[in-house]
Amino acid sequence: MIDESGEAVSHSWKAIQTIAAGGLIAGTLDLTRACVQFGSHIPLAIAAGLLGPAALHQGAPTYVLGVFLHYFIATSFAAFYYAASRRLSFLVDHPWICGLMYGAAIQEVMNLVVLPLSALHATGPYELHDLLRGLGVHMVVVGLPIALCVRRFGR
Hints:
This protein is mainly alpha-helical. It has six helices and no strands.
């Protein structure tokens, strides 16, 4: 593959850049939104998913762990979309609709798999307006940026 300056670029380096861009943008948008909506303690709640409820009352190292875990999850979702887009070209060709649907799928994976398996064992019951807001938010601030990054950088 040749980049804009005419230099050869390895496929693996292009993949890393694409996945990193998607994960960083989606992770930053989602973490910012969560901190505005729920407060700046959100990274402690994320860390509590790994460490248990005691993490909610711990300090800076646990906060940093929560931020790291948040970006790890966002980057993992970006990597999954990128990998799928190598076989399913419509994910690249139609990033708006695919990104929105991917964001909805991410919300469901978080609610039905990640949170119940976490150390917090969050299983609901959930209010309908919270589910709808979560779907909308993850469609726009997570799925869409990942899909658009794959479209822009992953060709």
